[in-house]
User: Which sequence fits this backbone?
């Protein structure tokens, strides 16, 4: 991991939606990239806070009491326990920062549940 | 912390170099913004891995065995114990991820040592 990583370059190497790629590890946390399109599932992470940083596009972060509209350059931290549903009407690219233990669908296990894949 | 943060907007709110601002906290880690210009001090963090993500400009990350040239969109993780010296010939804007316990100058305490400041 002791070399630089260019995020745009890494984003050219995969196209699957809702399938996070691990691009770095530090302090028990993982840095991930993901491409999103469509509606995800409502879920929460009981033990993990999760950071979303929008690299491209617009992400609607639905919360039970409101929706946060996140554009390029916006960051949002979903605190542990908070129910959320990411929605991307058009393709969105994000960076994620979250603990090693994080499951993408949180306490919900369904067809969207995937293991994050390591990138070279 | 439960609201979105626009990084470019936050960067308009301060001008001091080498004076990190805290823009988020999660999982015992802090997300910071900093503006850099000039040469920092050689240092290492004994217990903390530190992530640099370049938002604007070019950062030279000097290591004892080489120099990594980091441009906009590049990320670099400095593993704990690794001596490094950030050098910015022109102004550079970065995002940092590191544990709450991180001191900016690591084990070196000198006139560059500062506490990160909280941003609203």
Assistant:
């Amino acid at each position: 991991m002791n070399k630089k990583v260019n995020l745009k370059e890494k984003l050219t190497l995969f196209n699957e939606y809702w399938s996070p790629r691990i691009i770095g590890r530090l302090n028990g946390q993982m840095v991930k990239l993901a491409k999103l399109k469509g509606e995800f599932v409502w879920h929460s992470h009981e033990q993990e806070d999760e950071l979303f940083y929008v690299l491209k596009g617009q992400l609607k972060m639905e919360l039970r009491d409101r929706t946060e509209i996140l554009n390029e350059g916006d960051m949002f931290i979903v605190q542990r326990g908070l129910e959320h549903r990411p929605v991307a009407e058009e393709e969105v690219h994000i960076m994620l920062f979250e603990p090693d233990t994080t499951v993408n669908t949180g306490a919900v296990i369904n067809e969207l549940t995937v293991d994050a894949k390591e990138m070279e």
